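chain below, 176 aa
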Amino acid sequence: MKYLKDIQEQGMGTWYFEIDNDGVAYRQIVYHDDGTCITSNRKHDFYHFMLAEHPLNTQESCYKEINQAEFEKLWYEQLQLGLEDWRRTKTLFPVGTRVEGYIEAFFPQGTLINLMETPAIGITDTSTLKSATPAEWMYPHYRVIAEVSGYDEVNHWVLLKHAEVIGSQFEEAGHM
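prediction:
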């Protein structure tokens, strides 16, 4: 993995990325000029799940390579702010529990599942999910059932196995 820093134009904040050798972002942090911060592991009210959608070209002059320790320090600081929520999430979703949620987003790490307990997010293997799901159901808001298999402590996500898309969309009040 490589770690990048990108100081955007005035008003756009400072962006940090963890990318693979192909430039695909796995984690992202954005510190806005007003001091607020958005991380890719948490749903933001306005920006949803913020993660670069296309590979980054590390040759562009706006990117400065940083060391992993610098990135991890910033990431860890943000994780600490949500530690109480993370502990609550693990209590609500013990290993072996059957859960229901809906597809939120597709990340390089897998499919993010909203577990309908703010801010609980699960993740399951996308290729396994796709292999047993009609293509027309592989979209956000389609309902999913799964089993909790563990926890991703780096992203504060609930690990899910035996996930199945059940063919109907979750309807949030005022959204669909």
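The first strand starts at residue 2 and ends at 7. Helices lie at 68-81, 83-92, 126-131.
thats it, cya
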